[in-house]
Amino acid sequence: MKKLRVKVFVTIFLILTIFTFSLLLLSNLREYNREKNSIEDVLRRSRMGIIQTDFEVSGPDRPTFDRTRRDIFIDYNVYNIALDSEGNYKELLRNTNDDLDESEVKKFAERVLSTKKSDLEINLLTKKYSYSIDRFNILTIVDNTNQTNRMYRYMVTSLIIFFIVEIIAYFLTRFLTKWIVKPVEESFEREKRFIGDASHELKTPIAVIMASADAYEQDKEKKWLNNIKSESDRMNKLVTELLDLNSLENKEFKKEHVDLSKLIESSLLPYESLFFENSLKFTYDIKPNIKCEVNEEKIKELISILIDNAIKYSKKNGKVKVSLYTDKDIYLKVSNQGEEIKEEDINRIFDRFYRADKSRNRKSNNYGLGLSIAKKIVDLHNGDISVESKNEKTTFTVKL
User: Fold this and answer.
1) Strand runs (DSSP E) across the chain, as ranges?
2) What is the dihedral angle through the alpha carbons of 56, 62, 66, 67, rounded to the nearest 10 degrees?
């Protein structure tokens, strides 16, 4: 179970981490492209702004430049530099940074030219300058220091957000892991308890049978054979109930559209003598013509379990009542007068091998499987079964 928790935790945490990382990565890429497009736009606009001057360029196309014109680019320092025919620094045509000396412009222009790999380069992360060279040998340089700093701040903020989200994801993953694994753990514990309880219930009759067989070999008295038969019957009942419960696990069965009123009424008739023998008053209130799709045999088994339970736990001269009626859904109720079921027992009364009155187990030949089988039958009919116990009255309600 520990390995399962670890696997679920790692899986959920990795999914959340990858999702968060992907979102932040996409956000940073989008921000980078936005800054890059902005610099491309500045390079393009700066080249377009150069018009008519006395600076000559060889060739039939001879653009001239107005040295008095100054384009303003907010947050950008832009330099337009003329290159000679060999691509070397020739002259500064325009500079949006008045405080910068031309010799300094020449230095970083030569640095750009010495490392250039193409006619256009924009790198906001490792380069201080972005540049482009047009067909007239005009070098346009943009100082992208501010944009680089802004990108680094954006990445640092993203990392901080990532670590904060990871901390939240850690605690969220722990909660989700606990929530997801809890049903599995409960099922696992139920199976362990089921195996342990079944082994315990079989151990006692087997021990009695073995001891009785040994005793019979000694004195051949009939009482030892009676003990063997009695305990064999108990084992047979237990194994039968276990097989019934197992047959209902993850199994669909055939359902037919039947008159439920007639089915339940006919199922109650064989028990009238039992109520008489146990000094119990039995009444029923079954509304006619209630029809639905059920498995007849399983509904009969359900009635048998609930009636048997009512008889066993009713006080002397108590009342047992069976009701069937409709109120949007179909309701079947079996109630009896007797000792109330404790609240902690109500929460577990449908668990396998659970008995609220353990002291009556061997006397009543009860293994605590009947109500588990009843619940499984109701579940396979897409219904719900519940119990209420107060004022010395216990009522099992089946909703279909």
Assistant:
1) 77-83, 89-95, 120-121, 129-133, 138-143, 256-259, 281-286, 291-294, 319-327, 329-337, 384-390, 393-399
2) -30
Paired with 281 in beta bridges are 319
- How far is CA 247 from its chain centroid? 30
The reply to whether 300 falls in a domain is yes
What percent of the chain is predicted at pLDDT more than 70?
83
Whether residue 297 is contained in a domain is answered as yes
How many domains does the chain divide into?
A: 1
Specify whether the CB–CB gap between 144 and 124 falls below 8 A.
yes
- Per the CB < 8 A criterion, the answer to whether 138 and 120 are in contact is no
Which tens digit of pLDDT belongs to each residue from 137-184?
888 888 888 888 888 999 999 999 999 999 999 999 999 999 988 888
| Domain boundaries, position 342 | 252-399
What six digits make up the tokens of 143? 């100082």
Confirm whether pTM is higher than 0.70. no
Q: What CATH number is given to the structural domain containing 380?
A: 3.30.565.10
In a domain, 302, yes or no: yes
| Structural domain includes residue 74 | no
